[in-house]
Amino acid sequence: MKGKEVFFQGNEACAEGALYAGCRFFGGYPITPSTEIAEILSNRLPKIGGAFIQMEDEIAAMASIIGASLVGKKSLTATSGPGMSLKLENLGFACITEVPCVIVNVMRGGPSTGLPTGPGQSDVMQAKWGTHGDHPAVVLAPASVQEIFNETVRAFNLAERLRTPVILLTDEIIGHMREKIVIPEEGVLEIWDRSRPDCSPEEFLPYDTSKGIVPPMADFGSGYRHHVTGLNHDASGFPTNKPSLVQPEEERLMAKVTENLDIIEKYEHLKKDGAKVGIVAYGSSARSAKAAIKQAEEEGIPVDFVRPITLWPYPTEPTLEMAGKVDVIIVPEMNLGQMIDEVQRCILGKARVIGVNRVDGDPITPENILEKIREVV
Amino acid sequence: MAFNYDKYMRPGKLPHIWCPGCAHGIVMKSIIRALDRVGLDKDRTVIVSGIGCASRMPGYVDFNTLHTTHGRSLAFATGVKMADPSLNVICVAGDGDSLAIGGNHFIHACRRNIDITMIVFNNNIYGMTGGQFSPTTPHGKLASTTPYGNPDYAFDVAELSMGAGATYVSRGTVYHAIPLERQIADGITHKGFSVIDALCTCPTTYGRRNKLGSPIDMILWFKDNTVGLKAAQKLSPEELEGKILTGVFRNDIKPEYCEEYQKIIEMAQGAVAGG
Predict the structure, then answer these.
(1) Residues spanned by the domain of A52
(2) Are both A49 and A157 inside the same structural domain?
(3) ipTM
(4) CB B75 to CB A60 under 8 A?
(5) Which of A184, A203, A222 is the last residue of a domain?
(6) Min distance B262 CA to chain A CA atoms (Å)
(7) Does the distance separating the beta carbons of B75 and A63 come in below 8 Å?
(8) pLDDT < 70 positions in chain A
(9) Are the CB atoms for A32 and A117 separated by under 8 Å?
């Protein structure tokens, strides 16, 4: 990849990726371990004519980025678990009103205040189900500093292309870890912008799906006056409670994801000859899993590996394929067993699934996983 | 000649959801006349609301309109305004929406002095949910959740706004619709954060329970129980007992938030140019 080599922290890579993607508005609230993203953007955004605002709370931060996006600015907020809990209210608003935006959750440990400076992966189900009501969920889970950069860019692209909020789930380990990465030159990575209406303002309907499942979006202030509401609405954007309109619109929100899996799904699938053990891991736990797989191979134990990069929608296909081959699937995660349920769901009972779980504030080590591999072989 | 409201109304969106006798329509009409008086470009104006009876108002008027989550109108509006400071941004909200669940956003918008006009449709009650007490329900009054009388004491919206730093603060009533219109117009032209405490009435869920008479009686009550700020200067504390003060409480010039941020942009870009 052509570009500039830098030695970056994960949170720095996230801020840089956002700028690369065209982010011009950040609304935030201080919270460990995500704060570096806000700090960097408070410095960088005004330099390029963008805007940074530190809001009075996490709820307001989430609201502000939706407001800015409605004016046409690509917008970002960053937080951690306790803040994410507060953002969920307006996350649902962005889902039903179809406002593109990106939310970063640098996961830390524990429920409530928990372990503010320790890593965790306990918000993976919250990311999918957290806000109330049925809603689409697009959640990306990078596992390295370079991947944080690239996936931040992709998060903006998906948000714009699908008109939906996208969550980037990192954790305290990769958020604060430093690695050498390449910041690609402008134009190396593709950048998508939301489609805007090509009809006249008089003909404009804010949720017009005649040209596709994702309706074109007009900026507030551009002459296309329209109404945006968190109530169920029809193509005109105005509230409706007509059953014949509500159900298809809710189904369309979900179909924006299910019908675009080709651009959303992303995973790593490593296959070894004769493997009878497989691992499914994501984020920083996947790094320990990879190290464990290497050590196991040295001990003569081949291990297959699936790493969802897009965590939601979950990559069913490679997981099911792996389950058809191996006897046991190990799911290491820094929680007490969350994605393991999703793995169970996809494999139709074709393999035994066991977890390696830590919530003590220390990362899952390669040894923790290797021990389990040895145990099951 | 009668004012032509049609120019600002979205065709086909009436009847509104408000109950017969509700005074929200008087505030809406005052806002429309104020917008006309100021001559705002409909394309360049965004009206933002939260949840509740008052927050349904933007749906009826022909602007860029944003009906958000409960209490959050100012937080969304702040994002809109910061993203494009050349837009005219107006928030409409009820008393519960703006001062209880939205209280934090309210005081911080005041503090920032961001150029947004906040019109509080203050009818002392949560109407849409059926008459629960709000932060402006007077002490002792009945609500569906204060069956023994309200133990809380009410916010004074004007005092709260001034204490928090709003630079234009006024109070009007639906009886005094023309002064209310003027205050709203002045609030919109004011550069900075403006709060208009628009006293209105909810006969259905507040008036009936508290035996306040007909919808008209409730509006007439404002005539007898409010005193303009200037008139109040000539009255003794005894004469002012129980009266509500109306008028313009504050109209100050102070640095506006987006203008301050523009200075930051210039500073940051200057720093780039200077290496």
Answers:
(1) 3-184
(2) yes
(3) 0.97
(4) yes
(5) A184
(6) 8
(7) yes
(8) none
(9) yes
CA-based nearest distance A131→chain B, Å: 13
> What CATH number is attached to the domain comprising A171?
3.40.50.970
Q: What is the pLDDT of residues A240-267, one digit of tens each?
A: 999 999 999 999 999 999 999 999 999 9
What token pair was written down for A364?
A: 């899952």
Contact A67 B48 (CB under 8 A): yes
Assess contact for B172 and B183: CB atoms under 8 A. yes
Q: Could you tell me if A249 and A328 are in contact, meaning their C-beta atoms sit under 8 angstroms apart? A: no
Residue B272 banded pLDDT, cuts 50, 70, 90: low
Chain B interface mutation, best of A56, A62, A74, highest count of B Cβ atoms under 10 Å: A56
Same domain for A277 and A175, yes or no, is: no
If asked whether residues A30 and A178 sit together in one domain, one would say yes
Chain B residues near residue A93 by CB distance under 8 angstroms = 68-69
CA A206 to each of CA A163, A169, A190, A251: distance values in angstroms, whole numbers, following the listed order:
12, 30, 26, 17
Contact between A227 and B264 using a beta-carbon 8 Å cutoff: no
Calculate helix-pair angle for A10-21, A35-44, nearest 10 degrees: 40
Read off the CATH number of the domain in which A366 is found: 3.40.50.920
Note whether residue A104 is domain-resident: yes
Spell out the domains of chain B, with CATH numbers in brackets: 7-273 (3.40.50.970)
Q: Are A206 and A228 in contact (CB under 8 A)?
A: yes
Query: Looking at the complex, does the CB of residue A89 fall below 8 Å from at least one CB of chain B?
Result: yes
Q: Within a domain: residue A303?
A: yes
CA distance B275 to B272: 5
Q: Which of A184, A216, A235 is the last residue of a domain?
A: A184
Identify whether A286 is part of a domain. Answer: yes
Interface test with B, best of A71, A74, A236 (most B CBs within 10 A): A71
- Quote the radius of gyration of chain B (alpha carbons, Å): 19
Residue A328 within any structural domain of the chain = yes
